[in-house]
Amino acid sequence: MQKLSKRSPGIDDELLKGMIVCGFLAQIKAFILQQQPATVKSIGDILEIARVAETAGILTATATQGDMSAMMEVKTSRKKVQQLAHRMDNMTVGMMS
Length: 97
Hints:
The protein contains 5 helices and no strands. By secondary structure, the protein is an all-alpha fold.
């Protein structure tokens, strides 16, 4: 696929990565897009993450929309907890006069 894209003018690596991600099942695509951008640098990284998701059974073709929404809620909750922890770390104790 990479060799074919090099022969086609106007297709850069970012566009190719987007095309590859669009070709996965919706559940695997969602798992790939949830990864940190720093961990997804190349096409090999995308394929490796997809293999991990598929092999571990994290996301299967039988996953329901409820499963996906539950995963998104967990991720949102985790971010909120991290934000609260960051706020607590930055808090200072002041003396009252």
